[in-house]
Structures are given as C-alpha cells and as structure tokens.
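Homework-ish question, so no full write-ups if that breaks the rules, but can someone show me the predicted structure for this set?
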Amino acid sequence: MASLASNFAGISSPNPFWLASAPPTDKEYNVRRAFEAGWGGVVWKTLGEDGPPIVNVNGPRYGAIWGADRRLLGLNNIELITDRPLQVNLDEMARVKKDYPDRALIASLMVPVDEDSWKIILDRVLETGCDGVELNFGCPHGMSERGMGSAVGQVPDYVQQVTEWCKKHSDLPVIVKLTPNITDIRKPAQAAHDGGADAVSLINTINSITSVNLDSFAPEPTIDGKGAHGGYCGPAVKPIALNMVAEIARSPSLSGLPISGIGGITTWRDAAEFLALGAGNVQVCTAAMTYGFKIVQEMISGLSQYMDEKGFRSVDEIVGRAVPNCSDWQHLNLNYVTKARINQDLCIKCGRCYAACEDTSHQAISMTPDRVFDVIDAECVACNLCVNVCPVESCITMEELQPGTVDERTGKVVEKDYANWTTHPNNPGSCAAE
Amino acid sequence: MPDNQLTPGIAPDRLDASDYAENFADLHPRLDAHEALVAADRCYFCHDAPCITACPTDIDIPLFIRQIATGTPQAAAETILTQNILGGMCARVCPTETLCEEACVREAAEGKPVLIGQLQRYATDTLMEANVHPFQRAPATGKSVAIVGAGPAGLACAHRLAMHGHDVTLYDARSKAGGLNEFGIAAYKTVDQFAEREVDWLLQIGGITVKTGQKLGADIMLNQLRTEFDAVFLGIGLGGVNALGLDHENKTGVEDAVGFIADLRQAQDLAKVPVGRDVVVIGGGMTAIDAAVQAKLLGALNVTLVYRRGRDRMNASRFEQDLAASKGVRIITNASPVALHGNGSVREIEFEYTKDDLSPTGQTFRLAADQVFKAIGQTLAGEGLPDLEGRKIAVTGPGRTSVPGVWAGGDCAAGGDDLTVTAVAEGREAAEDINRSLAV
Ligand SMILES: Cc1cc2nc3c(=O)[nH]c(=O)nc-3n(C[C@H](O)[C@H](O)[C@H](O)COP(=O)(O)OP(=O)(O)OC[C@H]3O[C@@H](n4cnc5c(N)ncnc54)[C@H](O)[C@@H]3O)c2cc1C
Ligand SMILES: Cc1cc2nc3c(=O)[nH]c(=O)nc-3n(C[C@H](O)[C@H](O)[C@H](O)COP(=O)(O)O)c2cc1C
Ligand code: SF4
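A: Not a homework solution, just the prediction itself:
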C-alpha cells in the first residue's frame, strides 16, 4: 500500500490534501469537521490586523457559471478576509491544533505593508502552535483597493520585502500565496524566493464578472443594483493554475522551491496532475464548498489506488514527474505526424465531428447518406478538434503515422528523426543542425 | 409457436433450444464504461444522502458513485463491499425501485433516479473480475463461531467474523452454500453461476470452513454447537411453505413455487425442466412473480398469477409486476382459490372474487391448470429453536435470541423485510455484536 504521508516545506500531514484559506476554514467548527472527514491540513481563513473586524457585504457574495445538468464549473466571490475578531480566531486555532497534532494548520495573514504590522501579527499567531504561515498576496477584490492582497502580489518588490520581514520576525515556514492576476507568474515567485520564502502557493482567485443581469443591467452578484468584480475559482480555473504551477516548476532559478498547488482541484486526478507538474501538495476550496468535506475520501482512495497501480510508494515519487515534459512550442517535434481515427463501433452518428471539421477546420471528415463518418487523411492536419467535440469518450483517437509511411496530406515520407522549428527551413532565424 | 407449447400436461422441451438462452439472459446486462460514466455523472453527491438511509446495509452510495466517476471502480467496489460483502448479488437482486433508487433525489426531480443498482454492479464486477479480495483477517483470536445456514445472512456474518480473526464453521443442510442466492433468486437476475462464484470469492478471506449436508436438528444440535463453539449464529431462512388449505391439495401438479424454482436454478439444461401448458401461480410476492415469469420463459402457453387482494397490496414491486406482464403473464387480483378440480392430476382451479378485506363476493370462475404453484409465503421450520415472536425467531438489537450465546438474522429472524440485502445487514450486525461479546 502506498503511503500518502506528506512533508511540504518541512510541514508534515497525513496526506497532501489541504483545505485552502477560505470559508471552509473560517472557524473551529468547520475545521474540526474537516479533520474528522480526513483532510490532511488546513490554511485558516486569512487573518487581518487586530482591531475592528473587517465587514462583508450583506447581500449575495457569490456568482457562478454552470455546465450541463447545472454542474458548478466556476465560482466567483466578493468575500473579504475573516470578519471575526482576531483573538477569537487565534484561540480557536490553538484549540484545534492541540486536538489534531498530526494535521497541518497554517495561518494565512494579510496586514498593511509595513514591518511593524507584520511583526505584530506574526508574534500573535505564534501562540497558536500553528505549523506555518501563508502570506495572502492574492485576494483580488476589496482588500486590494486598500493596498493589500493582490495589490501587493502584483508588485514583486513588495512581495520580496514582506517575505523578508516575515522570515526576519518568525521561525515558522513561510508560504507566499500568489495572485494569478499578473502577466508573468515567475516574477512574483522569484521575488518570494529571493525574499527567503520556504514555499509558494498558487493560484488565488482570478478577476472576474460571471454574468450580467439583463433586466437590471448589473453584474451578478448584484448588491442593491450594483456589482463589483470578484475572484474566480473552481474547475474552470484549473488549466490556468496548472500552467502557472508548471511555469514556476520548470524555471531554473526557482528549482527546488516547494509549490502548493491550488485552483479547481475537484478529484484525486486533478490533484495528481498538480503533483506531476511540480506541486508538493494541493489545496482545495471550491470543490469542498460545492460537495462538502467528504470529497476528500475519494481523493484519498483514488490517489492511493493510482499510486498502487503505478508502483509509487510515496507522494514525492509523483511530484514533478511531468515537469521535464513541459516544453516550449519551438521544441516540439514537427516530424511527429498523427491522423484522427473514428471507431465505427463506438460512433453514435451525431455528426458533431463533421460539423466542427467541415465548418471550422480542414474539411477532413467525410459523411455518407447513411451517416458514416470517416477521416480523409489527405486533409487531416491532426488538430484534435473532432476528438474534443465528440460526446463519446475514446470514439475518436489520434493515431501516429509510423516513420517511412507517407503523409497523404503533404505527400512526404514521415521522418524518423526529431526536428523542430528552430531548424525548420521556413524559419527565417533557423540554425541548421550541425 | 413451437408445437410443444400446445402439449397438454407437464412437459419438458417446450421451446426450441436457442430460445432458452435468450429467455434466461441477463435481465440488466452490465453497463459498459461509457454508460457507467454517464450514469455516475448524474449523481449529485447529496449530503447525508437519502439513498444511504434507504439501503439496509448503509452503503455510502454517493462516495462509490464519485469513485466510479473519477475512474476508480475498484475503490468504488471497496466502498460497497465494506458495508455489504454481497454487494455483487444485491446489485442484481435488490428491488432498488423500493430502496435506494426510490429515495434518490433525481427520482423526485425528474422521475428518473440515478442507476444505483447497475452502477453497483459495474463496480463490484470490475473488482471481482480482477479477482481482488480487498479484505484481510485480523490476527487470530482463538475464538470459534458456528454459523448455521449459508445464505446471505450466514455468509455476511461469517465473512465479518473471519475478518475480525475468529474461526468460523459454516453449516448448511443443502449440498451447496449460497442459500436462496443459489436456490431461489430468479435465474435471469444471476446468470453465469454468479451465486457460486460470489461464494468462492467471499471465502477467499480465509478462516471459514464450510460443511454442507449438515442439518440442524438432525446432523447437528444447537446445544452441542453451544458447547463446542464460543457463539452460534442461526441464518436458516424459511424452510417451510404455507399451504392453501384446500381439499385435495396433494393432487399431482400442485407444487411449491420455491421447489420449482430451486430445481430450475440447479438444472444443467433448462430445456429438461418440465413445465405445465396452463400454469396458475397463487400469491403476490417476489416468489410468485419469479415462478410465473420463469414458467413462461420455459415455454408454458398460459401463465396466470392470481392474488387475493388488490394490485397495490402485492408485495412484488411495480417493476416486478410490469416485468411479469411484459413476459406475457396475466395478473388477476382480488380472487382467492376455493377448489381444485381433476382426477388425480389437477385440471382446473376455481377462484372466488374477494374484496380487499378478503370478504367473499359469491362470484366464482375457473382457470385451466395442469400445474399450480403455491407461493403464499414461507415459514420457519425446525424444532428446539430459541423463543419465537409470531412465527419467527425473536431477536433484540443486533440479533440476540432468547438463548445466551445464540444470535439469529435474515429471513428466520423476526423484523425486517425478507430481502437478500436485509439478511446481509442482519448477518453483519450480528457479527459485530458477537465480536464485541467475544472481546470481553
Ligand atoms: C423465489 C424467491 C425469489 C426471491 N427474490 C428476491 C429478490 O429478487 N431480491 C431480494 O432481495 N430477495 C429475494 N428473495 C428473498 C431472499 O432470497 C431472502 O430474503 C434471503 O435469501 C434470506 O437470506 P437468509 O440467509 O436469511 O436465508 P436463505 O437464503 O433462505 O438461506 C438459509 C440457508 O439455511 C439453510 N438451512 C435451512 N434450514 C437449515 C437447517 N435446519 N440446518 C442447516 N441449514 C439449514 C438453507 O439450506 C439455506 O442455505 C427471494 C426469495 C425467494 C424465495
Ligand atoms: C469565498 C472565497 C473566499 C476566499 N477567501 C480567501 C482568503 O481569505 N484568503 C485566501 O488566501 N484565499 C481565499 N480564497 C481563495 C482560495 O483559497 C483559493 O485560492 C481559490 O479559491 C482557488 O482554489 P479553488 O479553485 O479550489 O477554489 C477564497 C476563495 C473563495 C471562493
Ligand atoms: S448558504 Fe444559503 S442559507 Fe447558508 S448562509 Fe448562504 S445564503 Fe444563507
């Protein structure tokens, strides 16, 4: 049996599944139930400065988009950091940590950008016995208008500065949570690294408006006729998060920096993908908010079964396995030629592949009067669109043309050797291979 | 129509050879991977889900469906089998339309529940085909338990006790283990010797010795078992059959439905199972339906099921009734048998229409019948058993009988529906209680 035990930046937990800082981790009641359900760790809902607590809107704070059958695909929120008094949170964190010593408990922090504020809050959270701190440089709404959250995360110099203060005033592992609302995620990650961060976590939510009410002409969620942009999360953001994680993981100057992967993780498989792209553990928010704490049981059983099948004994054996295969476009093999293949036994004759290819691609699918669909090799550029629009899994697949065979589209013999754009004759800047 | 369908009396070979295979094929063939994913996708992963509450064995249905949806059917099977070691059989035979699927919120939303039973089968079949037995025995405790009856109750009890490290001896009067899974359930619900394969798979846990041909009250005695073992579990089902209470009930052709089904289930060649041309089944439960449908599938020309009260009072679910109707069984309700006619062999059976409270109406009718199946209920058989409640063994809590050290569960015990899944639940609960009692 594979072991799911996790050690992330020196913080141990029985499994790599943590709850991200958000409503699921907002109070003792939730966190105890989460631990009972099996979560390996939690990042407590972000704490702010002592003093009058933050206020939230009193109308709806979430908007959503749905897929077929009203499956929640994306969630948007305008919630701020915790709106409960600091001391109440600290007392609760201390109690929970005492009762669940084997679980990871991380304090998420957001205070104004001055050294004193950070020193004060770090001293306070130390009393809780927590295992580390996460610096929330990501929240894209409300707090950013006050110069915190993503307003910090978007300026690498601030990121580095605050990270340095935290390392100076605390011995706890420091995780820097990054905002995706930036062009190049490697810049703030580098700043965190240079500031001495023990790890980065990403992504926080993405600036978004989920929908507009066409009667009141206001964005949703609407508060008394007005709406503000919110932070987007859930399954829809996973591809964006995966790419950002991979960007950091394959960046030589950031090598070895632990990454906590966040963004749309809903099943064990999503989690395993983040791990493979270099995340040392994962955090989950929307999936727990949609389905409840119990989903962690499927994540645990699914990941262990996968690891057993693959012969992996520890989570670390998955971490980063896909990173060497993340390449730049210019290095992809142009001599790798495939053609779409339609399995006639599985085909249900809906014709979606035909519509897609005929109207928007390369007119490479033929259709007979009795609805038999077939690929015309002389036209197929192997774009994969038919595979993606087919409603039947594995009905259309891509088949590799073996070296030596002729690609009917180009009339050329498929070469055995790897060759990419950098050496291609059409590339004005090509440098012919020696 | 093959000529032999018209042959009067009770005769084998009524159909062409190929018809039998077709008639007795799997009622709900297993979902393929695509169908399973589509079906699993419909589950809402409800909180404190009503389907779990509706399942007598409390299987965590949303979790196992999510495990199927995320591509891990073996993990799904483990979730199922942890609660219900006969999850494979239950997936085939449970009247889901009155259990989990009736409670499904999508039944409320769209009148179309998630296909829980078929998804359960998809998961358990995947695991069993890989020949994985995901449970291990705890270290041996040195305690021993005798279980009488190797039906669902006894098997579930045996597996759970073996898992806890106890040594189990499983006695059964018949020549084969399985109980009604092997001798009762309709053939088209459990094709390809599934009952036998499931027993073999279950026994892989180890620590269970099966002794067949051992009848309690004849070959083995309760008191002797009580002294030889640390605990005893009785899962002997209902061995007797209720009589109609008519004159000449022993006429040739008047038979017990359960006996007919048992013979059919054990037949090497279904063509050799004799069946009447005009068959009448009396009763309104699952046994009556199964006897009627299978008589029809064997080639009986006319099969009529007659029940004494209204259709809504029948124990067989609406699904079962519709299944019978779709196979050509005629269902007559509100009629009670009053006389059997014929010299030596039955030729006709006479009924009187009765109201829902069974009061007679004075109006009678006769049906041609060369074979009459009695399916009006089974009864507990045996002497020297623990105290009874009504006509079954009285139990408190998880199957404790009036005799110290003796537990009972399944059909033979009072309370609970007479269903495979209920027997499994009771067997498992008794095992847990026995385990607790042996620990002190
Ligand atoms: C025809 C028929 C169809 C059915 N169809 C369904 C269905 O589709 N779905 C469903 O959920 N339920 C169905 N049922 C009910 C279900 O089969 C029973 O509820 C279930 O089998 C009860 O399990 P059990 O272990 O209590 O008893 P049984 O399955 O009856 O097993 C009892 C075992 O004890 C043995 N035994 C009995 N007496 C003695 C003795 N004195 N000494 C030693 N051994 C003894 C028997 O040989 C038998 O193996 C059906 C029942 C019948 C009769
Ligand atoms: C309602 C809500 C509140 C959130 N509050 C915080 C917060 O206080 N601090 C923080 O670091 N992230 C916060 N987040 C972001 C999540 O921690 C997480 O980074 C993001 O939702 C992406 O993960 P997901 O797709 O699994 O939801 C919040 C998210 C939501 C939906
Ligand atoms: S989930 Fe619904 S009931 Fe609960 S606080 Fe939000 S709006 Fe109110």
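Now go work out the reasoning yourself. Hint: The first strand of chain A starts at residue 6 and ends at 8.
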